[in-house]
Amino acid sequence: MSAGNLQNSSNSVLERLFKLSERKTNVKTEIIAGCTTFIAMAYIIFVNPSILQAANMPLEAAVAATIWTAALCSIAMGLFANLPLAMAPGMGINAFFSFYVCGTLGLSWQTALGAVFISGVVFLILSVTRIRQMIIDSVPIGLKGAVVVGIGMFIAFVGLQGAGIVKADQATIISLGHLSDPKVFLALFGIILIGTLLHYHVKAAMLIGILVVAVLGMFFGVNGAPTSIDNIVSLNIPSVSETFLQLDIMGAVHYGLISVIFTFTVVELFDNIGTLIGVTKAAGLMDEKGNITNVDRALITDSCGTMVSAIMGTCTVTSYVESTAGANVGGRTGLTAVVVGICFILSLVFAPLAGLVPGFATAPALIIVGAMMMKNIELINFRDYTESIPAFLTIIMMPMSYSIASGFGFGFASFCLLKCFSGRVKEIHPIMWIVTVIFCISFAMH
User: Fold this and answer.
1) What is the rounded CA–CA span in Å between residue 141 and residue 387?
2) Which residues lie closer than 8 Å to 259 by C-beta, 6 or more apart?
3) Which residues of 382-393 are buried (b: 16+ CB within 10 A; e: fewer)?
4) Per-residue model confidence as pLDDT tens digits over 280-307
């Protein structure tokens, strides 16, 4: 078979698997999108294990578990749900896992993994019975738009912090960072560079911006540069053996971790729903009524992914908001997610190289993505206070509470209460009431 025929055959297989033409994309665009998403979320390879180490988990195994969970779950999402949705152990929930469950409660990480597994079973039941999809369908279009904008604000806030453009302040909680810092200057340059490339419709704008800022950082000595082959390739691939199948399910049951399992379930449920809405909207996979392509398959994949994360030895897996970075450069199919998964597998060998891309280099892409997602604010009816106030609370509480789920909760609760006290109870879907009660319980237990 000639090289041309081989390439055509390969493209044909990918076409059948991912419906590239139907979604108006191609292999090159999907690969660029996948690489962009991976680079934007590669920090999880180093951040998650360091947090899990606080729960006395072995560091090498935590690194391996993080990478393998992200790889397997992202590939599964791409192949089964055909969505450009990358997955990895969740930020925020990993802190709850280590600092509260294992720290404050004093439980072993094995027992905490057991609780994660049980929450995954709960997810699966909710997904198979289509309850999770019913929850998504019950959310009014204005509130869905607010969720997308709120996630954009959250992503931008994370980027601003990562770049050092904003910093913590004891007096005002947050303040302007040191703009004379070379890292801040390079991040600001990255924002302008990516914005300019986007203006000229360069599809790899995000990826180019991240890499250029990283290389400039190396050139000016702001961040480390490779000095030997060991800084690029590692022959000592980390092993997952110390955490694989170490979960203690019966320990979680015997301890009576109802509140812990409930928290894992609620936070993960709405983090995923919020991210799913945000990414599919950015990828053009949500129709004008708010219906999401292959949402049932995405939710089932996510549920199984949570159980896989517990088996591998890491905290709850979640859909990553950084997937919007790939969606905004053209990622429209599961091929994007598969590319992300492959990149994670390669990172087992090239982990040192991935570490050379600093936070201030990925920060500009996150900030730009946040700006892109602001366009969904047009879905909100600002003339109706029963619509605009819940939307505002959804948007503002995501970055301010550093939780997508919390923003969702404030939006749900305020929507139901305002509609109720305004004499418009009929506009509230019954599931909205149920979810509001669940959120109120979750907030009370916080």
Assistant:
1) 10
2) 445
3) eeeebbbbbbbb
4) 776 777 766 666 777 778 878 888 888 8
Strand partners, 412: none
Q: How far apart are CA 291 and CA 274, in angstroms?
A: 13
390-433 pLDDT tens trace: 999 989 988 888 776 678 788 888 999 999 999 888 888 887 88
Contact 381, 419 (CB under 8 A): no
Which residues have C-beta within 8 Å of that of residue 366, sequence separation ≥ 6? 40, 155, 156, 158, 159, 162, 322, 325
Tokens linked to 152? 């954009």
At 305-335, the pLDDT tens digits run: 888 888 998 888 888 877 887 887 788 888 8
| Residue closest to 72 by CA, chosen among 396, 417, 308, 314 | 308
The tokens for 42 are 């590669």
CA 391 to chain centre: 21
| pTM exceeds 0.70 | no
What is the 3-state secondary structure of the chain?
CCHHHHHHHHHHHHHHHHCCCCCCCCHHHHHHHHHHHHHHHCCHHHHHHHHHHHHCCCHHHHHHHHHHHHHHHHHHHHHHHCCCCCEEECCCHHHHHHHHHHHHCCCCHHHHHHHHHHHHHHHHHHHHCCHHHHHHHHCCHHHHHHHHHHHHHHHHHHHHHHHCCEEEECCCEEEECCCCCHHHHHHHHHHHHHHHHHHCCCCCHHHHHHHHHHHHHHHCCCCCCCCCHHHCCCCCCCCCCCCCCCCCHHHHHHHCCHHHHHHHHHHHHHHHHHHHHHHHHHCCCECCCCCECCHHHHHHHHHHHHHHHHHHCCCCEEECCCHHHHHCCCCCCHHHHHHHHHHHHHHHHHHHHHCCCCHHHHHHHHHHHHHHHHHHHHHCCCCCHHHHHHHHHHHHHHHHHCCHHHHHHHHHHHHHHHHHHCCCHHHCCHHHHHHHHHHHHHHHHC
Residues near 125 by Cβ (< 8 Å), separated by ≥ 6? none
Predicted confidence (pLDDT) per residue in 182-226, tens digit: 999 999 999 999 899 888 877 667 778 888 888 898 888 887 666
Q: What is the pLDDT of residue 260?
A: 63
How does residue 372 score in pLDDT terms, banded at 50, 70 and 90? confident
